């Protein structure tokens, strides 16, 4: 449906992000045409996205495109697109575990799948990286249940839990869990870990970057020296992480770790990569938690972890995020990772892009 009556679209909160969800067949098949249309729908490029439905932040300028799976390894195909806010950028070079939380409920709403039981298990092929995730969600009379008592930091109130499990995500963008071949590197004079357990992330201590590690995102974004240094590290790390020139890419992300201040295992501040996250991304958190489990890395030095099989609690600006990492401590083979999210249908209707 791409005529003058508009395009069928559902707005959903997925975890701590928000995005426009489309059935693939409701969008043009041609990628250039599709991307140009999505930019107009979101109102990009414009810092306020005033003429579109984007929320003027990378975390609310996101798109999920969902269809029945093309192969029988999964039930659904999910393509994530990050749209720039003040630049005309549409990129499929990263995944989004937050919007992933909304994919199964959306597919149920659109009749792409059917609920199996009170708890439905849905296998989702993540087209961006070729990995498969399993979502477990509560259903009622065949429909997704949104209400519940699970709270996630960064979202007011409670909702029904959506459990996400990941398998074989190590190296999904960079080809290896440790794409440089080492757990510790020095780039631009900073000791750090380049890691990809579902999301390419550069992990370094806050101290190495001259900050405490518990500053607000606003204070960190106002720190021009810090941002310049982070960007220099990112540009140098891109080719070493097999990502090539990352000047216009939204990966790798950068996480500054420090000792926990609350009851968590480590404190984090994450740049995605130019804005500072109000919380932390899902697969970003999985990658950072994994770095904490690798001995002698900057993350392991500041993290306080007694039991590596227990959930790793990452403190972030609006609370904390738990990730369970099942990793062989010797071979570093990551068998499985799990997180809990919630999602909610916000509106369903027809969106009218500007001409
Ligand atoms: O890491 C932000 C988010 C994300 C991505 C980002 C995400 C993930 O919070 O899986 O969820 O890092 O761009 O939505």
Order of helices and strands: EEHEEEHEEEEEEEHHEEHHEEEE
CATH topology of the largest domain: Diaminopimelate Epimerase, Chain A, domain 1
Stretches where pLDDT falls below 50 for ≥5 residues? none
Number of separate structural domains: 2
Secondary-structure arrangement, i.e. CATH architecture of the largest domain: Roll
Average pLDDT rating: 96
Strand residue content:
25-35%
Bound molecules: (1E)-4-oxobut-1-ene-1,2,4-tricarboxylic acid
Query: What is the count of β-strands?
Result: 18
SS class: alpha+beta
CATH superfamily of the largest domain: Diaminopimelate Epimerase, Chain A, domain 1
Q: Give the helix proportion (percent range).
A: 10-25%
What's a concise summary of this model?
About 20% of the residues lie in helices and about 35% in strands. Strand 11 and strand 12 form a beta hairpin.
Features:
18% helix; globular; alpha+beta; single chain; binds (1E)-4-oxobut-1-ene-1,2,4-tricarboxylic acid; 355 residues; Diaminopimelate Epimerase, Chain A, domain 1; 6 helices
What does this structure look like?
Helix content is 18%, strand content 33%. It has helices spanning 31-42, 97-109, 217-221, 224-240, 282-292, 298-302, and strands at residues 7-14, 17-23, 62-68, 76-83, 90-91, 119-126, 131-140, 143-144, 162-167, 185-187, 190-196, 200-205, 253-258, 266-271, 312-316, 319-327, 334-341, 343-351. The protein is globular, with a radius of gyration of 19 Å. It has an 18-stranded mixed β-sheet that branches. It is built from six helices and 18 strands. By secondary structure, the protein is α+β, with helices and mostly antiparallel strands. Strand 10 and strand 11 form a beta hairpin. The protein has two domains: 7-168 and 342-351, Diaminopimelate Epimerase, Chain A, domain 1, CATH 3.10.310; 185-332, Diaminopimelate Epimerase, Chain A, domain 1. The mean pLDDT is 96. (1E)-4-oxobut-1-ene-1,2,4-tricarboxylic acid is lined by residues 16-17, 59, 95-98, 199, 253, 272, 281-284.
């Amino acid at each position: 449906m791409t005529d003058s009556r508009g395009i069928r679209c559902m707005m959903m909160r997925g975890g701590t992000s928000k995005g426009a969800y489309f059935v693939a067949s409701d969008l043009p098949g041609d990628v250039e045409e599709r991307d140009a249309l999505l930019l107009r729908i979101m109102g990009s490029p414009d810092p306020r996205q005033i003429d579109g439905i984007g929320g003027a932040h990378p975390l609310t300028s996101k798109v999920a495109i969902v269809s029945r799976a093309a192969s029988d390894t999964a039930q659904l195909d999910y393509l994530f697109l990050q749209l720039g806010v003040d630049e005309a950028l549409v990129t499929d070079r990263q995944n989004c575990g937050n919007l992933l939380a909304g994919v199964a409920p959306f597919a149920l709403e659109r009749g792409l799948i059917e609920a199996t039981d009170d708890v439905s298990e849905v296998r989702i092929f993540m087209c961006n990286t070729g990995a498969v995730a399993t979502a477990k969600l509560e259903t009622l009379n065949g429909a997704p249940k949104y209400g519940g008592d699970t709270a996630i930091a960064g979202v007011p109130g409670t909702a029904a839990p959506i459990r996400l499990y990941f398998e074989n995500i190590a190296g999904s963008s960079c080809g290896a869990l440790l794409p440089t071949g080492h757990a510790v590197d020095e780039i631009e004079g900073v000791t750090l870990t380049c890691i990809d357990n579902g999301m390419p992330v550069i992990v370094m201590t806050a101290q190495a970057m001259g900050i405490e590690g518990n500053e607000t995102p606003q204070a960190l974004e106002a720190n021009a020296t810090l941002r310049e240094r982070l960007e220099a590290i990112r540009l140098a790390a891109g080719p070493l992480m097999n990502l090539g020139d990352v000047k216009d890419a939204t990966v790798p992300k950068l996480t500054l770790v420090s000792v926990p201040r609350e009851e968590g295992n480590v404190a984090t501040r994450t740049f995605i990569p130019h804005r500072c996250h109000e919380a932390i991304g899902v697969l970003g958190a999985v990658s950072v938690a994994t770095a904490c489990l690798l001995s002698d890395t900057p993350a392991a030095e500041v993290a306080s972890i007694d039991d590596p099989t227990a959930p790793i609690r990452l403190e972030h600006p609006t609370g904390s995020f738990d990730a369970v990492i099942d990793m062989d401590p010797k071979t570093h083979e990551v068998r499985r990772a799990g997180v809990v999210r919630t999602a909610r249908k916000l509106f369903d209707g027809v969106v009218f892009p500007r001409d």
